[in-house]
Design brief:
Layout (H helix, E strand, L loop, with lengths): L6 H4 L1 H13 L8 H35 L6 H20 L7 H20 L14 H5 L7 E4 L2 E4 L5 E2 L18 H4 L7 H14 L2 H4 L4 H9 L3 H11 L6
Antiparallel strand pairs: 1-2, 2-3
Length: about 240
């Protein structure tokens, strides 16, 4: 008959030392095997709960990133990267948890969606009932939902945010679903984008009366002449009259 030590409920520290001495002495018949087995399993349950907890935090960040593109900031990007790093470390320490990722992802998304509704103020129907991403995508440091790389510039799908970096929304704009940025249609312009932006900004400033008085008309003509017609149409349609947010 298995032995149950009364110390387990009364003095756990004394119980643990007693059981360690019995195991070292090889006295398995006197050891509290049932409670020892429970204590060995307990860290395993704790590690699984931590996996789900970290996935919940990461999914919450990813849902906010995907469904609130106009509020993306470096702090959000940092939060996603930190959680991915911590999950990678946790899985490195506990490789046997990797087969449990799909199940843990399902449980984590259930809570993450509820928290996303509370934090964003968006309707619950905004967020999918099941996690829309695989475990590989969620843990992939290069995966940013709602963003696809086009010629070095990232374009948000659906709400179409044009960004130079996934963490910074320079123009903070919204376009109709299916909108294709003119910049994406002219990948050769990407390398010249900083210079073009500066010129367009100067052209905008020239319209101000205070600046116009000190800006020679010849300089304005030179600025305009540096942009060929097709470039000016493609870029001004998308960038003119828009200053970085």
């Amino acid at each position: 008959m298995p032995v149950k030590s009364p110390l387990y409920d009364r003095d756990f520290f004394a119980w643990s030392r007693q059981q360690a001495d019995l195991l070292r002495a090889g006295k398995l018949a006197e050891a509290d095997i049932e409670h020892i087995a429970e204590e060995i399993e307990s860290p395993g349950r704790t590690e699984k709960r931590e996996l789900i907890s970290r996935l919940t935090v990461l999914l919450l960040h990813l849902l906010k990133w995907r469904y609130q593109p106009d509020k993306r900031r470096p702090r959000w990007e940092a939060g996603i990267r930190v959680q991915r790093n911590r999950l990678a470390d946790h899985l490195d320490d506990n490789p046997s948890l990797k087969p449990l990722l799909p199940q843990a992802l399902t449980a984590a998304h259930r809570d993450a969606a509820l928290e996303a509704v509370a934090e964003t103020g968006l309707a619950g129907a905004t967020f999918p009932d099941a996690c829309p991403w695989t475990a590989e995508q969620v843990l992939d440091g290069g995966f940013w939902p709602g963003i696809s790389a086009v010629a070095g510039i990232t374009l948000g799908k659906g709400r179409s945010n044009v960004t130079i970096n996934p963490s910074t929304n320079w123009f903070c704009e919204r376009q109709p679903r299916g909108f294709i940025s003119p910049v994406a249609q002219h990948p050769a312009l990407v390398a010249q984008l900083p210079v073009v932006l500066l010129r367009l900004l100067l052209l905008r400033l020239v319209r101000l009366p205070l600046v116009r008085r000190h800006f020679h008309p010849r300089w304005t003509r030179q600025l305009r002449s540096t942009l060929s017609e097709d470039r000016r149409i493609a870029l001004t349609n998308h960038l003119a009259h828009r200053l970085p947010c």
